[in-house]
Amino acid sequence: xxxxxxxxxxxxxxxxxxxxxxxxxxxxxxxxxxxxxxxxxxxxxxxxxxxxxxxxxxxxxxxxxxxxxxxxxxxxxxxxxxxxxxxxxxxxxxxxxxxxxxxxxxxxxxxxxxxxxxxxxxxxxxxxxxxxxxxxxxxxxxxxxxxxxxxxxxxxxxxxxxxxxxxxxxxxxxxxxxxxxxxxxxxxxxxxxxxxxxxxxxxxxxxxxxxxxxxxxxxxxxxxxxxxxxxxxxxxxxxxxxxxxxxxxxxxxxxxxxxxxxxxxxxxxxxxxxxxxxxxxxxxxxxxxxxxxxxxxxxxxxxxxxxxxxxxxxxxxxxxxxxxxxxxxxxxxxxxxxxxxxxxxxxxxxxxxxxxxxxxxxxxxxxxxxxxxxxxxxxxxxxxxxxxxxxxxxxxxxxxxxxxxxxxxxx
Length: 411
Description:
single chain, 411 residues, alpha/beta, Rossmann fold, 5-stranded parallel sheet
C-alpha cells in the first residue's frame, strides 16, 4: 500500500526531506506545498494520507485538528527542542528531528490516519477534575442562573466557571464582572498555541467568590469564530488539570447545518456547546416550569439524546422557576409527572420561583447565596450541587479506572 504525503516544511531542510520521501519505497510525495493554505487544500481534496509539517506562521492546534478531521495523519519536523515542544503542544503526536531523514521516512511509512468522524465524539479525557455542562433549550429557561448559582454552591470544592454561550453570554453580568476582558477567548487562544494549563487558565480567570474563578464569555456575539472546537477540546483538558470542578454555561443551539451552507470546512457557531457536551461528565439540562417551557424541555431532551448519543455524560434535569401560579397545586409533583409521562424522565430537580432573591441578585451582581443564604433557591442549589458532586465523583472514578486499564503492564 502506497502512502501519499504532502510536505509543508519551511527552510533549507525542505529539499533534502522531499528527495528522501520521493525515493522511499511505499511512499508517494503528492505535493510540496508553499504554505499551510495549500497544504489544507491538498488534504481537503483527499490527495494525502500524511502531512509533514514544520513550525511556521499560522500553524496551531486548530490547524492540526483540521488535518486530523480530514483523515490526514500529521508528522512534525523540529529543528530544536523548542520547536519539538511547540509542535507537541499543538497536538502533533509524532515529531522527528529534521536531520534524522531515515526516522522521518519510517514515521511516514508507519503513519495511521485518525479521522474525527463525529462532532460529538468525546475527546480523550485527562485525569483530574470533572466537567459539568449546563445546557437547555431556547426561551431563557435560566441556564446562566443555574450555572452561576450551582457554581457558587460547589465553590468550596474549587470551581472554574466558563461562559461558552456564543449567542449571548451573561455570566460576567450576573456576577458583576467586567465583560471586556479576554476570558474564554484569550484562554482558548492560548490553549490553541499549546500553553500550559496554568498560563491559559490563571492568566484570564477572574476571582468571583472564594473558591470560584470565572472565564467570562465573549463580549460580543459576533466574535464566535474565535471559539473553534479544537481550541475548546484542549481548553477543557487544561481546565480539568487546573480545577477540581469546571462548570460550563452553554448556548441553547445544537444544530450542525454548516455543511448545507458551505462547500468546504465551515466555521461552527455551535462548536462551543457541542464540544462541552461531548467532554462533560455531567450534563445539567435546564427548563422552565411554564407550559411552553415544559414543552420545549421535552423536545430538548429528545434533541440532546440524538445529538449526544456518543457522549458519556449523565443528564440531570432541572426545572427552574417552579410555582403553583403556572403549574397548579403541588407544582413539584405536577412537573415531575409531566416529564415522566412525556420524556420518560425518572428524576427531576426543581428550583422554586423566588423573585425577591433573584431581583436582589440581579441588582447587586451577586449570587443567590450572597443575597439569601437560607432562601428556597439557595437550598435547591445546595441539594442539586450535592447530587452533581456525587455524579462527578463516580465519573472521575470511572475515568481513572479506564486509564488504568489502558496503561501498559510493567515487565
